[in-house]
Amino acid sequence: MRFSRLLIPTTKETPNDATLASHIFLIRGGFIQSVGGSGLYNFLPLGKKVLDRVRSVVKDELDKAGCQEVSLSFVTPASLWEESGRYEKYGKELLRFKDRKNNEFVLGPTHEEMMVNLVRQSVRSYKQLPLNLYQINLKFRDEIRPRFGLMRGREFLMKDGYSFHTSSEDMKREFDLMEETYKKIFTRLGLEFRVVEADSGAIGGSGSKEFMVLADSGEDTIVVCDACDYGANIEAAVRKEKVCEVEAPEALSGKIHTPDTTTIEALSAFFKTDPFYLVKTVAKRALYDEGKSEVVLFALRGSDELQEVKACNAVHANDLADITEEELKEAGLIAGYMSPTAVPEGIKVVLDNNLKEASSMICGANEKDYHLTGSSFSGLQGDYHDLVAVQEGDLCPCCGSSLRYTKGIEAGHIFQLGTQYSEPLGATFLDENGKAQPMVMGTYGIGVSRLLAAIIEQNHDEKGCIWTRESAPFDLQIIISNIKDGEQVALGEKLYGKLKASGMDVLLDDRKDRFGAKMKDYELLGVPYAVVIGKKLQDGLVEFVRREGLVKEEVPAEDIFDAVIQKV
RNA sequence: CGGAGUGUAGCGCAGUCUGGUAGCGCACCUGGUUUGGGACCAGGGGGUCGAAGGUUCGAGUCCUUUCACUCCGACCA
For A159 and B76, how far is CA from C1' in angstroms? Predict the structure, then answer.
């Protein structure tokens, strides 16, 4: 392609709302264009090209793994969502609207319902299973706060795949195959990534894994072990059970006057004991369907922090909200002195697993200025769950080494769904005995447009993008320094023609601009390699440039074709 | 939704306090010079100042209402 004919509106200035490198360079390089803000973007020729290349890597690997591509209707009848029960549950991110006949529709934010519908209409027998269908299509989520360019748009390109099986064993086999396939995809795209244990969120199901592209600008905190492969989203991370080297406080059981000790620190100082032996009680309002809600107490060791997503899952709530002082009073709870053992009637209590069989604990008396010592949870019946937010320095559940935090961009997520969609939606097959069984499902997503942002987050310098081999808009860029120099032009054109004929995708910068402007654009666009044909051509030399590190090498003009073929 | 802020040319901004001809830089168009690090000279085009209402002889500027967007928190590929 000739630069002079391509629509590549590069700019020197940074749009005022862009803070992330990927956002800045994708806009400045003329890859994408904002549609009046609000998380919507147009893909310009260069951006579309990169998107297609990334998409083709995804497609190629999926097809190799035996998946079949389909394309589902973007506009989805609301009735399907009502069937699955998600019409209400999904919340405001689901864009709903009516057609001229007043029928309700949604713009698909994910397509479990549609795909199950497709399959239940066409699959009858176990002989037709397993099946793995996917599409790479637009999704729309009416995000509360879209930001960071392609990283979190409202409209985005997603690959969503769904598999259907006769048994959960077979589904797990496919789940593992998808994990391997995803690893191949991210590796081919040149990304440094980590597969981590994850929370399943609104999609549901169990045993989900996320593919995190490692980048400081990532929005997710992930917990990783450097000694082994263990990695998990902070929302799902677990640790080896903690022990405390400090001895437990004397087990005198009783009510102690503890004025103004409403925090763990104060309490720890008052009793001269480790927070490990204190009980932290956190009150939250759990929100459910149809506007229902209730106050819940979450209790854990004073040395631990509550992980809200885990807490939310423990009570099967849609969300947890902070609680106001009035609400506390109304519920009969005393701030700073709450306790899982002295609870007003009708308040739900959830206990952290670490409290199971704990003894010699100090907890609130649910009475102002009083705490109870010598509390024991031994034999105490209760609703025990993992509620703990794993901290840096906690020990790896697999190998016992120290864990640390890092940041990641969630680029893929795979779920073992089971039958939670096939049952309500009636997606059944007839087994060998002629009995109807619900299909066992898995679901697998990749944020394709987000991958563009992730690639740049991981591969850029202060000057611009550095595309990886399989994501680059072109294999090579030829820069003719002075378009008025007949010799430079002749060599540029000749090289361009020969390389194109050899199957290479080449961008020829044949613009009238000065050298500096072309070089700046090259650096901004981030094509992996360039050939600069300039002044040194008088001495029979041209330059071969590697974008990464901007390494330059002089090559005799007559050898440049072979050099390019060999290096690129 | 809670908190903060911004809406003026395609982009980035000044002008608003103190009402009086709509400005600057980049980009764009024409001509010329220039061609190894975002050139220069000359000329030119482009705006219902987010929207509606009000005050005034006169509103980008003051008042009221409203909308949109951005940034910080809870959701997600």
Answer: 15
